[in-house]
Amino acid sequence: MYVSGLMLFRFGLDVFNWSIITLALDRFGSAQFEKLGALTALNLVMQCVGAVLIVFSYFYIWHRADGKGPMAHSNCTHVVLAIVVFSFAFMTTPLLVIDRASGGSIQSASASFPHYGDYSPNILFPIFMTTGIYSSK
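^ thats the sequence. predicted structure below, dont judge the formating
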């Protein structure tokens, strides 16, 4: 059950990352490739930060006096999975709320192009950087 949950979480995270890249290509306009390069580079930097946090947490296990480790070692696996899934939900929700609040709508079957909201596409930077921490391998 735990492995299935992790597989579904990883699949959802990868689909979300590619949807952000597709959204960035649609929204950035004339400087789309420069901004997409910066967006991807910042995501990779945050993946490095996430990997450092993981390594630091394992280092902390070995040198902690009471023998308790980080969240993954001191809680049940279902608790850790629930925390990760809910934090992913809280990470993806702002983009949906911002798009709908600024006039965006779901693309109908008859429309050939989606109707995005009037928000600045630069809001994708902090959202995509946050997903980089979760994407560290």
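The chain is about 70% helix and 0% strand.
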